[in-house]
Every structure is written in structure tokens, then in C-alpha cells.
């Protein structure tokens, strides 16, 4: 059976000073190409605008090519009443070296406060969320900076960062201003020795 997953490679960014909008691409030292450090596959309903991220425009497969995905979509719609997803980005992490760097899925075509439903299968992986620079993480931290800067710096390491373990069969939902105000990532994990498939259902408005 042929795989619809793509290991995405594209030529090195012509302007090396320009950082990709979403930090999900990485520079491969040997081949000097920008690559996505996991395999991806994009599915979308017909007639929607093209998805472009980090200068990459994935081919949109149709739902009919993957009948099981339609079943999962239906189950997600049932679990999240009122949701109506029309596109899906799949990620395959072949092992602990595959990852997604800090980014937000804040592309305009998803609207200002998108709901994104993330379903995971296979190997457990950690998922991190942290506030974008300049966004206050809660009312407490916004207090007039009573604390000396040196102290604040010390505890700022992972303060305000939230970690979740996304387990086989789990449904994780991001909504509201999560994409506007927060970054998320799935870091490399030496101990994650098996494949993980992640499905992120989205609505292009
Ligand atoms: O694999 C995950 O849990 C996250 C994937 C993700 O953030 C994305 O596809 O934008
Ligand atoms: Fe994401």
C-alpha cells in the first residue's frame, strides 16, 4: 500500500536572514535543505483556499481517499458538539527524533479564534504550551512587577509552560485565543522509540 505521507523537503530559504513564520522547519546540516522533521499529509474538503505555511503549500488530498479518516472525523464531531471541521493535517513521528518546534496555527484562513481538535495514536509524546512573548500568562504575573527582575528571570525557565502527555486514543482541543496568544510544540524525546500519528482537525472559514 502506498503511503500518502510526505517527508517534505524544499530548497534552502533564499534569504538566510529570514526566519520561517512557523518554527516547524529545520535546516538539515548535510543537505542544506529546509525540512519538516516528521512526515505530514494534508486532507481538505473541495473548494477551500490553499493552505500555505512556512512557505510550503501541501497538496490537499480528499477525504474519499481515506475512509477511516471520515469515521474519525465523525467521532470528533460527536465528541465536540457544534464543531464542523473541513480540513486535517496529519503528522507522523517515526520516533523520538521527529518533532514539531514551537509554533502557533494562526494562519488567517482559520479565523481569529480557531478550534483545533488533535487526536493521537501510537507512542505517547509530550506536548508543551507556552505564552507568546509579550502575552501575560495570568493575572498574577501581570502584577506591577513587584518582584525584582533578577528573581523573575530565575524562575522564568519553564514557568508558565504547560506540559501534557498525549496518549494513544486521546483527543486534545485548543480553542479561543490559544493560537493568538500561545505557542505549542512536541519536542524530541530519546525514549519515544515508536511511531506516533497525530491528526489535527481544523476549520477553514
Ligand atoms: O503532534 C501534535 O500533537 C501537534 C501537531 C501540531 O502542532 C500541528 O500539526 O500543527
Ligand atoms: Fe500546531
TrEMBL record:
Substrate binds at residue 106. Gene3D superfamilies: Alpha-ketoglutarate-dependent dioxygenase AlkB-like. Pfam families: 2OG-FeII_Oxy_2. Residues 84-205 form the Fe2OG dioxygenase domain. Residues 1-22, 132-161 are annotated as: Disordered. InterPro entries: AlkB-like, AlkB-like_sf, ALKBH2, Oxoglu/Fe-dep_dioxygenase_dom. 2-oxoglutarate binds at residues 91, 93, 103, 184, 196, 200, 202. Belongs to the alkB family. It comes from Ficus carica (Common fig). This is Fe2OG dioxygenase domain-containing protein. One of its GO terms (molecular function) is cytosine C-5 DNA demethylase activity. Residues 1-18 have a biased composition (Polar residues). PROSITE patterns: FE2OG_OXY (PS51471). Residues 138-150 have a biased composition (Basic and acidic residues). GO terms for biological process: DNA alkylation repair. It comes from the Eukaryota.
